[in-house]
């Protein structure tokens, strides 16, 4: 809309019209309440021409030549596409009668236009100017529309705040707070209530590999799968970074075989079995489930959810599956936290964490060729802590990164001592890497290894790094580049526990590795007949085809040694040769230089 001088004016800001900020607008004084603008703040004009949402007051149409600036003028009324008369139901009592009386005749003489911006424009038919009374009614109607629109705007804002407070933006599922509120209502109503937590295994590591955006897509997909597993009346929510929870109430809360909770557990397992197509790849996820039931009227919502999370954590620590909560789990959780505190102190302060070394021998002639460094921890209060106790805690808490770094540093120092002045082929040391050490957000592994080699003076060929199949798959996006950079340093690389993970042969061919280690479980099966024999034979033949060296773990009997030699396995380690040795014992073994003679070293 252009003003008389050809300049474009904002609605409510045209020159000279009633209620505008122009000179004529300042001289005109509308009587009575119609001077007040939207929501009762001033008359409609430059300061109130378009309140939140786009409602504008009456503005003059094109003024005919010679028309007096202060006389009645044709006008248009801009407003949202809303029916007028029903709005009178929402008017204030002091406005309702005057507005309805003024509008009844006015509305019959108006033509409706819709602007490009979506506003409704009301124009007098025939181009006749509005009377003073009609303009005053239009001002009152404008205020009414503005107040109504502001109310709708507030309602939308309140709805947005409600969703923000009660829904997860990634999955569009209810969040932790919403689930807790629903659970508390169920408990207060005296209904039997149960909570099932579904925790995605190793999700933090997976998120580091996939990246934020793709991890969110995965979470959304998991949420959709889980939504297909629940029944009407169940309440599904996302309660943590990689965890969901389902609230069961009434008969569905029954934990027994065939009950609602048991049925849901089976449905969740089946629902997550298929891979998730993501970024041109197929991502497999596993979940650990924790269930806690509560009798009618017992417990509190926060306690139920916390106990279900504890049960899910127990399930993951135990290798996956599902667990029903029991009170002893709380005690074990407390013990793990205490263990974490002591382990952290042992890593960063003092020498409580150290490597021990298990010999690796050439199976053909029994010659010592190297050692595998294994982490050990002696606590000042508890004494020697088994690796089966502290390694899972280190993995869960991320302490495995500084723990692994310490073992790597000390192992490289030892291999330098072993090879100093050694005659013949140098020994090597193998060090296990955690999947977390492949996470670039936690550690620049290549820089760390390069720095350790420079600090200790170790030749890169004396160091071999072992990674599990599952760890490589978890960090598939970054693993190949990291491994290639390590290989470029001259470091040896091997897959540990080969055959126990999920990697495909096509993926293995892409990895810059030079060896594999046969898992001890396969070696143990050599005593069980043809099946175990066929499996180990297949692994050895595969390694030969790919040009990889092979080390068999868990060699404990003469039968194992005999079969492995016959199959062409080059190297082995296990209790048949020696248990893990302390640093001083390993040094004496190296100095002795004798080959294995059928009796265990150490």
Automatic annotation (TrEMBL):
InterPro entries: Cyclic-di-GMP_PDE-like (IPR050706), EAL_dom (IPR001633), EAL_sf (IPR035919), GGDEF_dom (IPR000160), Nucleotide_cyclase (IPR029787), Rev_trsase/Diguanyl_cyclase (IPR043128)
Gene3D superfamilies found in the cross-reference section: 3.30.70.270, EAL domain
Coiled-coil portions: none
SUPFAM superfamilies: EAL domain-like, Nucleotide cyclase
Annotated segments matching region Disordered: 1-75
Domain EAL: 336-594
GO molecular function, one term: cyclic-guanylate-specific phosphodiesterase activity
Bias (Gly residues): 12-24, 39-56
Pfam families the record matches: EAL (PF00563), GGDEF (PF00990)
Biased composition (Basic residues): 26-38, 61-71
Domain GGDEF intervals: 191-328
Biased composition (Basic and acidic residues): 1-10
UniProt xrefs under PANTHER family: CYCLIC DI-GMP PHOSPHODIESTERASE PDEF (PTHR33121), SIGNALING PROTEIN YKOW (PTHR33121:SF70)
Name the record gives this protein: GGDEF domain-containing protein
Lineage: Bacteria, Pseudomonadati, Pseudomonadota, Alphaproteobacteria, Rhodospirillales
């Amino acid at each position: 809309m252009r003003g008389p001088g050809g300049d474009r004016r904002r609605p409510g800001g045209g020159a000279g019209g009633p209620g505008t900020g122009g000179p004529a607008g300042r001289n005109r004084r509308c009587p009575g309440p119609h001077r007040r603008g939207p929501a009762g703040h001033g008359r409609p004009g430059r300061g109130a021409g378009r309140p939140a949402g786009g409602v504008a007051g009456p503005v003059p149409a094109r003024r005919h030549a010679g028309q007096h600036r202060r006389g009645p003028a044709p006008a248009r009324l801009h407003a949202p596409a809303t029916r007028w008369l029903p709005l009178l139901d929402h008017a204030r009592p002091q406005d309702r009668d005057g507005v309805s009386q003024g509008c009844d005749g006015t509305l019959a003489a108006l033509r409706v236009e819709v602007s490009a911006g979506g506003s409704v424009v009301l124009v007098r038919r025939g181009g006749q100017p509005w009377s003073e009374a009609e303009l005053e009614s239009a001002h009152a109607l404008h205020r009414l529309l503005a107040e109504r629109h502001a109310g709708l705007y507030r309602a939308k804002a309140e709805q947005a705040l409600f969703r923000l407070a009660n829904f997860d933006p990634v999955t569009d599922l209810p969040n932790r707070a919403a689930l807790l509120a629903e659970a508390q209502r169920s408990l207060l109503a005296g209904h039997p209530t149960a909570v099932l937590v579904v925790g995605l295994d190793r999700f933090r590591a997976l998120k580091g590999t996939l990246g934020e955006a793709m991890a969110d897509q995965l979470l959304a997909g998991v949420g959709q799968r889980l939504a297909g597993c629940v029944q009407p009346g169940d309440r599904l929510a996302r309660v943590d970074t990689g965890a969901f929870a389902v609230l069961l109430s009434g008969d569905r809360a029954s934990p027994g075989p065939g009950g609602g909770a048991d049925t849901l557990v089976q449905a969740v397992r089946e629902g997550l079995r298929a891979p998730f197509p993501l970024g041109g790849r197929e991502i497999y996820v596993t979940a650990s489930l924790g269930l806690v039931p509560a009798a009618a009227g017992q417990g509190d919502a926060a306690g139920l959810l916390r106990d279900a999370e504890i049960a899910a954590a127990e399930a993951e620590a135990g290798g996956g599956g599902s667990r029903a909560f029991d009170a002893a789990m709380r005690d074990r959780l407390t013990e793990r936290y205490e263990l974490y505190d002591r382990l952290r102190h042992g890593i960063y302060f003092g020498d409580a964490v150290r490597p021990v070394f298990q010999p690796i021998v050439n199976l053909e002639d029994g010659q010592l060729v190297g050692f595998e460094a294994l982490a050990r921890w002696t606590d000042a209060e508890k004494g020697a802590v088994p690796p089966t106790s502290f390694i899972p805690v280190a993995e869960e808490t991320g302490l495995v990164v500084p723990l692994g770094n310490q073992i790597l540093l000390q192992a490289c120092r030892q291999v330098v001592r072993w090879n100093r002045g050694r005659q013949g082929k140098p020994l090597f040391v193998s060090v296990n890497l955690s999947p977390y050490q492949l996470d670039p957000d936690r550690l620049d592994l290549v820089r760390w290894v390069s720095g350790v080699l420079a600090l200790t003076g170790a030749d890169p060929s004396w160091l071999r790094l072992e990674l599990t199949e599952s760890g490589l798959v978890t960090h598939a996006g970054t693993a190949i580049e990291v491994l290639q950079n390590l290989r470029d340093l001259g470091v040896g690389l091997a897959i540990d526990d080969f055959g126990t993970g999920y990697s495909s042969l096509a993926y293995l061919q892409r990895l810059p590795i030079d060896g594999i280690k046969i898992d001890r479980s396969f070696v143990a099966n050599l005593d069980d007949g043809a099946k175990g024999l066929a499996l180990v034979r297949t692994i050895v033949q595969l390694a030969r085809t790919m040009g990889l060296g092979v080390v068999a773990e868990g060699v404990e009997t003469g039968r194992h040694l005999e079969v492995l030699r016959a199959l062409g396995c080059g190297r082995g380690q296990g209790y048949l040769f020696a248990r893990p040795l302390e640093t001083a014992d390993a040094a004496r073994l190296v100095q002795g230089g004798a080959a294995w003679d059928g009796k265990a070293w150490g």
